[in-house]
Design brief:
744 residues, alpha/beta, GIY-YIG endonuclease, Rossmann fold, 7-stranded parallel β-sheet, 6-stranded parallel β-sheet, 21 helices, binds adenosine-5'-diphosphate, binds zinc ion
Length: 744
């Protein structure tokens, strides 16, 4: 029973940040909800305006000498906009920033002037002619033509945008095809084999027992609405996508709509086609290559009910579906689900759960290596939990061996490849199979470790690696602890302390030197700089245009390469040495996912993990692919130091153009924070210089707060924001990051 309501009256004005307070009349007290559309008297003339309710409260929060008017009436349909506004309000409150920033994240862009027609390319050739052309293209090594021909032959027709982005075929090639009369281009979609929803034409595999149990269980939760989310924990290749599709089909056939979130990097042509095949024109895909106009069109189609399933990265979460029934997050452990640079810094998992609660929808979180957060909730009985233990067709998980690099050094092997890995590579190349070499470069910058005992030098207070700075000091970027760079390892006394600096280019050169006839492809930030470089390299490797693929964590996801039988992980330790509390978790995930790349086809796979710390639990449990054991060890560390999910952590990032200003800002923030902290039992760490002290000429400082309850952090954030407003936003800016994925 709310007495007062906060109302936004005009969505088009820039300064949305200040909602107006209205009194809730008796007849609305029981029924008024956040997101409702109402009519209110506004301004001195009391003209009627429409507004959305974004907050309800029992007591008035504004000063007593301001008059509060009554809401005139609640208007019927508020539609999806009301839900999205309520969602924005929740995000602002949960993650900080202004309501305006949150609304910009959540509400689609203003409609562009013209609607653009999507054009489709249709193949006109009979199979015999296709076969002839295929041979011609193969002989001429016309790779792009071949790719286009094959894709059109399987699909019949394809949207132009898919050909450009996911197939990597230029419009010139399409034009040439059109001139030759191979294809026709039209602006309306016309289906050769209309995909149908009742499963008539679309291929629906028979699920195995585990898969069926997961679908039934999750569907029951969807009907009973007894949990906010389910965790689908299945090794790679166990059929999670098949389970999603079956669940989607059931929920869509009840007139509900579905959002499928996929990390951008894993949203491949193959994945897209699986959904198109099953659901046809009722699927829409938002990917980064769409223009702003195309994007708006897709969202508009969703609003009008022309599609039921939206697939896309994080931001697809805000698709304006009225009858949302299900939200899926595939690879839910991925860091890209957290927005890092734009405010509010929201996590798609938590935001999905809030959005789902608005329409009593279900959230499904799928992963082979769940985040500690999700597994923690599942273990505590707050989420449904379903496990897929078998790979489809009982394909064996690869055999994983761990090689101790310290022993290699002792035996006189100074190459970056262990003897074991060299042998496996030679074997695979001899059998005409493919190899992936994965260089773990996370946490690459500035740490120091011991080449003899493998230990990193850590902060005595925070148990994260210290970072070496240019001034020769080693610093903890959480608490600011610093010490001079030491000469000997504090653990074993050895003199061999140093960073590890090998790049992918070096790996490529070395492999070429060892195996001169091998065809090597390299994938890293350099070779993927062009917009479509990533997809081009992956499809080249998939088409077996190379024997070895060398890359960073980018190669861990995406395509299935059935001919890859050997995966080498060159510096498994790297991510263990990263200077944040998620270092072990990320290492476990990277190793498990990388290992899952081997042996996806008929042939069994082998994985070689090279490390200086073979005994580390993240490496040992990854070798055994034993998530539960990893979890037990890791959660006890989080418990001990109150890191998420056992406690919560808020990063306060302070920025200013002048160094004196950021110093001032840090001093005032320290005073404010310490005063609040005294009343609540929270721990304040810092302020300290940010890991990157100066970025684009802006000085940065950080302060971390640890608390048992998330809500305590929200309260502190609110107090800081109120203080900043009162003091006129002096000395630069302050922003927040809750349960951060990385340090600032
Ligand atoms: P995940 O998403 O867990 O990695 P996928 O759903 O991609 O697994 O399944 C791996 C492969 O096995 C896919 O080619 C998929 O079509 C196939 N597959 C999985 N389950 C079945 C099934 N019940 N019947 C037929 N094919 C299946
Ligand atoms: Zn040592
Ligand atoms: Zn520290």
């Amino acid at each position: 029973m709310a007495e007062y309501a906060q109302i936004i009256v005009d969505l088009s004005i820039e300064k949305l940040d200040r909602p107006f307070t209205y009194h809730v009349p008796q007849e609305l007290k029981e029924i008024l909800r956040i997101g409702d559309l109402v009519e209110v008297p506004f301004g001195r003339g009391n003209r009627s305006l429409q507004g959305f309710v974004i907050g309800l409260e029992d007591e008035r929060s504004i000063s007593a000498n301001i008059t509060v008017k009554d809401i005139r009436k609640k208007l019927p349909e508020n539609g999806i906009t009301g839900h999205l506004i309520a969602l924005a309000y929740w995000m602002k409150n949960q993650y900080g920033g202004t309501l305006n920033q949150a609304l910009k994240t959540v509400l689609p862009l203003k409609k562009t002037a013209k609607e653009k027609k999507v054009s489709y390319v249709e193949l006109l050739l009979p199979p015999k002619r296709v076969q002839e052309l295929r041979e011609v293209f193969q002989r001429k090594h016309a790779v792009a033509r071949l790719r286009l021909l094959e894709a059109l032959y399987t699909e019949g027709e394809l949207p132009m945008s898919v050909i450009g982005s996911k197939l990597q075929v230029s419009s010139a090639v399409v034009k040439a095809f059109e001139e030759e009369g191979y294809v026709a281009i039209r602006s309306e979609r016309r289906f050769r084999n209309p995909f149908s929803f009742d499963g008539g034409n679309s291929y629906r595999p028979v699920l195995n027992d585990e898969q069926r149990a997961a679908v039934e269980g999750m569907y029951a939760h969807f009907c009973k609405k007894d949990v906010p989310a389910c965790l689908l924990h299945g090794v790679t290749g166990s059929g999670k996508t098949e389970v999603y599709m079956e669940l989607i089909q059931r929920i869509v056939s009840q007139g509900k709509q579905v959002i499928v979130l996929i990390p951008e990097i894993a949203l491949t042509y193959q994945t897209m086609m699986r959904f198109y095949h099953r659901f046809g024109e009722r699927v829409s895909i938002l990917h980064s290559r769409l223009s702003a106009g195309e994007r708006t069109d897709q969202l508009e189609r969703a609003r009008r009910g022309e599609v039921d399933i939206m697939i896309g990265p994080r931001s697809a979460l805000f698709t304006p579906f009225e009858q949302l029934g299900l939200i899926i997050l595939d690879e839910e452990h991925e860091g890209t689900y957290k927005s890092e640079d734009t405010i509010p810094r929201y996590h798609a998992r938590e935001t999905a759960i809030y959005r789902a609660s608005q329409t009593k929808a279900l959230v499904v979180l799928g992963s082979a290596t769940p985040s500690l957060e999700s597994f923690y909730e599942a273990k505590n009985g707050n989420y449904g939990y379903y496990k897929l233990e078998k790979r489809y067709r009982n394909r064996e998980l690869p055999a994983v061996s761990v090689v101790d690099l310290r022993a290699e050094l002792k035996a006189g092997n100074r190459s970056m490849f262990s003897r074991k890995l060299q042998k496996e590579i030679a074997g695979a190349l001899g059998r005409k199979e493919q190899v992936m070499l994965f260089l773990n470069r996370r946490g690459m910058t500035g740490f120091i470790s011991c080449r003899s005992c493998g230990k990193a030098i850590k902060c005595p207070h925070c148990d994260v690696s210290l970072t070496l700075h240019k001034d020769g000091k080693m610093k903890c970027h959480y608490c600011g602890y610093e010490t001079l760079r030491m000469k000997n390892c504090p653990a074993c006394g050895s003199r061999y302390l140093g960073g590890f600096s090998v790049g992918t280019q070096k790996v490529e050169e070395s492999i070429q030197a060892l195996f001169p006839s091998a065809r090597v492809l390299r994938m890293d930030a350099d070779t993927t700089r062009s917009k479509d470089g990533y997809e081009a390299i992956l499809s080249g490797f998939a088409n077996q245009e190379a024997d070895v693929l060398v890359g960073t964590q980018m190669i861990v996801k995406g395509h299935d390469f059935p001919n890859v039988t050997v995966v080498g992980i060159l510096a498994a330790d790297m991510s263990l040495l990263a200077d944040d509390f998620r270092a072990s978790e990320r290492t476990f995930q990277l190793l498990t996912q990388a290992a899952g790349r081997a042996g996806r086809g008929e042939k069994p796979g082998k994985v070689v993990i090279q490390t200086y710390q073979p005994e580390h639990f993240a490496i040992q449990t990854a070798k055994q692919q034993n998530f539960e054991e990893f979890y037990e060890e890791e959660i006890s560390y989080r418990q001990l130091l109150s890191y998420p999910p056992c406690g919560h952590m808020m990063l306060i990032l302070m920025k200013a153009e002048k160094e004196e200003e950021v110093e001032q800002l840090a001093l005032t923030m320290e005073a404010v924070v310490n005063q609040i902290a005294e009343q609540m039992s929270v721990l304040v760490i810092g302020p300290a210089d940010a890991r990157i002290k100066k970025l684009n000429n802006i000085y940065r400082k950080t302060c971390y707060i640890k608390a048992k309850e998330y809500d305590q952090l929200v309260q502190i954030k609110n107090k800081i924001e109120a203080y900043r407003e009162q003091s006129g936003y002096r000395y630069g800016t302050v922003s927040f990051d809750f349960d951060p994925m990385h340090g600032a």
